[in-house]
Design a protein that fits this description.
The structure holds 2 protein chains of 2 kinds. Chain A has 12 helices and 2 strands; from the N terminus they run H-H-H-H-E-E-H-H-H-H-H-H-H-H. Chain A has helices at residues 2-29, 36-54, 58-79, 89-111, 137-159, 161-171, 173-178, 183-208, 216-219, 221-231, 236-256, 264-275; strands spanning 127-130, 133-136. Chain B has 2 domains: 19-142 and 283-353, Rossmann fold (3-Layer(aba) Sandwich), CATH 3.40.50; 144-273 and 358-388, Rossmann fold, CATH 3.40.50. Chain B starts with a helix and ends with a helix. The chains are: A mainly alpha, B alpha/beta.
């Protein structure tokens, strides 16, 4: 029972890191970025390739798994995304899903369709028993890392000048820029952080899902979107709670009723949308 | 001046000769339709290499004919497969079609083969009923029931009485589950639980925890080849190997092409399949060596062997018909054909046009620092149980 809860929390944390970037771009910048998964894939590939081809240790690849998609994110934001900030959601969806469809064959062309494995270092493998609860060490690692990221993000948004500027810019970009806030720069940095987090999530998820392959962006796309829908799209906390709720329900559902377990997250999403269309954990009146 | 005229004349002559050879009846075109891009691209790659190796080893001429392979990529999309088949038969006058990476792709071509009376040699797709869809379909790969049923028989004889089956919820997974469970229950075993995971399932944790709590003697697994590694890693991570639950399945899970990537968690998995790269026969040693040499060290897997044997089947049939390429004659010649494949002795069942072959029980072991499916028991001349059950 507790093992299931633990596994659920670990899975939820993973979903959180994968989805929180999306929550940031969607909630704070009002931009529907379906290509989010492609950045996650890039991070996963960065880790897998650096480990397998260059022998870089796992932990050392994680900053690169963050940096590489973040840099690509900046480049794409400067050249492509920013043109669509004011566009209709449909344009944004079509554009970003197009990016996904380009990213997948590119990955396939250069790296093949077989999953690239991430081989964890020994100290992250295995399992310990604490009071009868089986705990996978890597899952514990995921919970700790992702928990730390969530805390850091929340503090960053609430407690720093940058966070305050960002929230101001989101609420009213014109007034914010009138007050001397460099909204362009703000959005670029925010977007980069979102992409970087996706990459980090991809790198952490690689072992759990059996390696990174070119279909990775679509594998998690539905989960991302459900997390953001259920959690509400304005802020880190909503995404975190949404992800945890889904992770635990998904794992528990698949354990207790395997025959319908896969549908539980969809049922939760439908219920959540009926009760609180703005998201379960969103501030009322939030946008 | 004279020399220039001579040279021009020679060149013209050569062109005439070349075009004559092109239109020549002596060239037999064989269309090889494979998914070279997309999800199943690794299948295409292995199959292409297998077929080309056969051509390279045995020369292009047989029974006075010259064999030419025309390779087409269908990207794993059934409508493309069908169109390519029509083009190959209509424009290139292909006398046989080979390949077909997935079941829907093989099925899409069945009506084309029937109408054009051209043999369709299925060298990959493994759903049992494919060969029933056209009298011109012959198969050199395997069927899932053929691999899954012997696993149940072996388990019953080796102290495994309680099994949980774990399959991915799609055609082949359900096939494997049905044939394993039916055979196992009929033989007196108990299937405690049948778990089906959705095709796009990122995390196996809850299912594996359930298997662990069921505490069976073994868990029978069928997942699409890419997911095998995730399953096995988590199987080990969750300590199922240490709690005495054996991992059994069909050889798809421990595909030779992926085994190195899965790594040590695969050790000890027992599977039944028709081919292992470690099959200890001189034919296989020569095959593996030549294959690796021709493909930069790539390990052949069961797909490569099936394509290699598809070519062997065509060569054998042409020899029997003395070069006649009429579809009915070729199919007749293929029925009952038997030869020694790298996987061991194989033959084509004259009734069902499906392959009859040995199924081997293997265990993943480390040999010279590399992982292999090491065969330790053989069930000889297994027919497809799906069709055998109907007759």
């Amino acid at each position: 029972m507790l093992t299931i809860l633990f596994d659920g929390i670990a899975y939820g944390m993973l979903l959180f890191v994968l989805a929180c970037g999306l929550s940031v771009t969607l909630g704070l910048m009002n931009f529907v970025n379906l290509a989010h998964g492609a950045f996650a894939m890039l991070g996963g590939y960065a880790t897998a390739l650096l480990m397998n081809r260059c022998g870089v240790p796992f932990l050392a690849t994680l900053p690169i798994a963050f940096a590489a998609p973040a840099i690509l994110g900046v480049a794409l934001e400067r050249t492509l995304y920013r043109r669509l900030y004011g566009a209709s959601p449909l344009d944004q969806v079509l554009f970003t899903i197009g990016l996904v469809f380009m990213a997948m064959p590119i990955a396939n062309y250069f790296l093949g369709d077989q999953p690239q494995q991430v081989h964890l270092p020994l100290f992250l493998q295995g399992r310990v028993e604490w009071g009868g609860v089986g705990i996978g060490i890597y899952r514990l690692f995921i919970i700790l890392v992702c928990g730390a990221i969530a805390a850091a993000l929340q503090m960053f948004l609430i407690g720093t000048r940058f966070g305050a500027q960002l929230r101001a810019a989101v609420d009213d970009a014109r007034v914010a820029s009138g007050l001397g806030i460099d909204v362009d720069r703000l959005f670029t940095i925010t977007f980069a952080i979102g992409c970087g987090l996706a990459g980090l999530g991809g790198a952490l998820a690689a072992d759990v899902v059996g390696g990174i392959d070119p279909t990775f962006p679509v594998k998690f796309m539905v989960s991302f979107l459900i997390v953001v829908t259920v959690g509400g799209s304005n802020g880190v906390l909503g995404a975190l709670l949404g992800a945890l709720l889904l992770g635990v329900l998904d794992v528990a559902g698949k354990y207790y009723v395997p025959s319908i377990g896969a549908f539980i997250i969809y049922a939760v999403m439908v219920a959540a949308l009926l009760i609180r269309p703005q998201g379960l954990f969103a501030r009322s009146g939030g946008r | 001046m004279l020399r220039a005229i001579l040279r021009a004349g020679l060149a013209a002559g050569a062109i005439v000769a070349a075009s004559a050879a092109f239109a020549d009846d002596d060239v037999v075109n064989i269309g090889l339709i494979l998914p070279m891009t997309g999800q199943a691209a690794s299948t295409g790659k292995q199959e292409q290499a297998g077929a080309q190796l056969y051509l390279q080893q045995h020369g292009a001429s047989v029974a006075g004919k010259k064999i030419a392979l025309i390779i087409k990529d269908d990207g794993g999309a059934a409508d493309v497969t069908k169109r390519l088949a029509q083009e190959l038969i209509g424009n290139d006058k292909a006398k046989a079609l080979m390949g077909f990476g997935l079941t829907p792709l093989a099925l899409a071509v069945a009506p084309v083969a029937t109408e054009a009376k051209v043999p369709e040699i299925v060298t990959a797709a493994a759903t049992a009923m494919i060969t029933e869809k056209s009298p011109y379909i012959v198969r050199t790969s395997f069927t899932l029931p053929q691999a899954a049923a012997p696993m149940a028989e072996w388990s019953l004889k080796n102290g495994i009485h309680k099994v949980v089956t774990f399959v991915t919820d799609y055609g082949p997974g359900n096939d494997a589950e049905k044939w394993f469970s039916d055979t196992f229950t009929k033989g007196g075993g108990t299937v405690v639980e049948q778990i089906r995971a959705p095709l796009k399932n990122p995390d196996f944790a809850p299912f594996l925890q359930r298997v662990k709590d069921d505490a069976p003697d073994a868990v029978f697994v069928f997942v699409p080849s890419g997911q095998g590694s995730a399953f096995m890693k988590q199987f080990a991570e969750r300590g199922l190997d240490k709690s005495g639950i054996k991992l059994i399945g069909t050889g798809d899970v421990t595909d030779d092409d992926l085994l190195a990537d899965i790594g040590d968690p695969a050790l000890g998995a027992v599977t039944t399949h028709h081919y292992s790269v470690a099959h200890p026969s001189p034919e296989n040693k020569a095959f593996v060596e030549a294959f690796k040499k021709a493909n930069g060290g790539l390990r052949p897997n069961f797909m490569a062997v099936a394509a290699y044997d598809g070519m062997a089947l065509v060569y054998g049939a042409l020899e029997k018909t003395k070069g006649a390429t009429d579809g009915d004659a070729l199919i007749e010649a293929m029925k009952g054909a038997s030869w020694i494949s790298p996987r061991g002795p194989v033959s084509i069942d004259p009734q069902t046009r499906d392959i009859i072959q040995n199924i081997y029980v293997r265990k993943v072991e480390k040999v010279d620092g590399e992982l292999y499916n090491v065969e330790f028991s053989t069930i000889e001349a297994v027919k497809d149980p799906f069709k055998a059950a109907k007759n």
